[in-house]
Every structure is written in structure tokens, then in C-alpha cells.
Amino acid sequence: MQREQLGNLGSTNGMKFQKAESDLDYIQHKLEFEIMKSLPDNPAAEENPVTLLEELSVVKSRYKTLCVQLEKVSIEQRESMNCIRAALENTMKMVQALQQHTDLEESRSLLLASHEKRRLPLSEDEQAAAQQLTCQTAKEMKSLVEEPFSSESTVPDSTEESQFKPLTEEMLMTVPRSIRSTVKLADLNNFYRELFNHFVVNKNRAALSVSQMNKMNMKATDSRVRILKELSIVELDKQGNVKLAA
């Protein structure tokens, strides 16, 4: 629901900016027409409307800049919501596993307590049921411990992987602030690792577009690509496609 609300908010704001820009275009053209119709053939310098039209152009430029900034904010919001959703899903899985483990323990305890109260030996079927509950409890606990690790993206353990060197804060600080201001080092390293695995570990050679990278769940953004380009880690071809620098 929050994701839909954020998406609707970004879409609504974008439509408002587009409408404002269209309105400004209409006003500018109408002013030009009215001025040309009303002014004499050779107007005096003080009657020249160029200044007014230039101010309108500046306002239009500012609106375009705001539209670009809004799009970047929307992308960051979507990424944040995806991270929050993934963390919430993992938490819910752990809670469900704990609940199942608790239920199994209660069933086993009730079974044993019942026979302890009667002081009778367990039948073969009851012994098998108790043993099954014990094994199932052990499996649940094992999966509860291993699941958070298995849910993370795994990378082949290879010689190529050992060559990967994460970026440091010092390296990031060498990039102009205007490029790196919205990018976190951890997110940048995750993106860099995905590229490294694709091109080095998996030995792919074809350059990737931003849309192709996002289809592969690399979470690519223009800012992250530009930072890696500034650090000479990636290079772009004429179409803007990305590959690791030679």
C-alpha cells in the first residue's frame, strides 16, 4: 500500500509539472503573438519584450530541473520500499518458523506428559510420533538458522571472486559531490559486485543497458553508473551501455 501511495504521489507530481510546463509554453506563444500583433514594425528598445520572454524561459528551465529531481527521488523511494519489504518478509518467515517450532514443542510435551501421568510405556506408534516430532523440531530449528543466509544472493566461490575489491569511502569521496550525493557506499558496492560477477565470474562480454541491468535485479541507476565511470571501473559505449573497463 505504501509503495502504491509513493508511486501515485510521484506520478501525480510529475503530471502537475508537465501541465505547468505546457501552460508556460502556451503563455509564451500567446505573448509572442500578442506582442508581434500590437507592436509597430520598428519598436523602441524600451518596448522590446525579450526580457519578459527570457524570464519565462528561465522559469521553464527550473520546472524541467524539478521534474528530473522528482524522478530521482521517486527511484530512491522505490528502492527503499523494496529493501523494507524484503526485511519485513524475512522477519515474518522467522516469526512463522518460531511459531511452528513452539507448536511442535507443545505437542511433544503434551504427549510425553500424558504418558508420564499414566506411568505407562509408549506404544510403538506413539514412540514413532514422538520421534517424528523431535526430528521435525530439529529440522525447523536448522532451517530457521540457515534461511537468512540462503535468502541472500550467493556468489560462486572462485578465483575470480577473490579478485573483487569493494570500493572504500576514500575512493567515493574523490567523485564530485554532485554525482555521489544521493548514493550510499553499501548500495554502490552491491551494484559493483553484481557487475563483477556478470562480466568476470560468469565471463559475459556484451555491454548492458540500464534497463537490462534492472531486469537482472542489479538495481542500476544513472548516479551509480556515473560514479563507477568516474572511478574508471566501467566504460560506456556510444549507446550508453555499460561494461567493466579493460
TrEMBL record:
One GO molecular-function entry: microtubule binding
A GO cellular component entry from the record: spindle microtubule
GO biological process, one term: mitotic cell cycle
Domain Ska2 N-terminal: 16-106
UniProt entry tagged with the keyword Cytoplasm: yes
Keyword Ligase among record annotations: no
Keywords: Cell cycle, Cell division, Centromere, Chromosome, Cytoplasm, Cytoskeleton, Kinetochore, Microtubule, Mitosis
Compartments in which it is found: Chromosome, Centromere, Kinetochore; Cytoplasm, Cytoskeleton, Spindle
Gene3D superfamilies reported for this sequence: 6.10.250.1380
Family, per entry: Belongs to the SKA2 family.
Protein name: Protein FAM33A
UniProt lineage: Eukaryota, Metazoa, Chordata, Craniata, Vertebrata
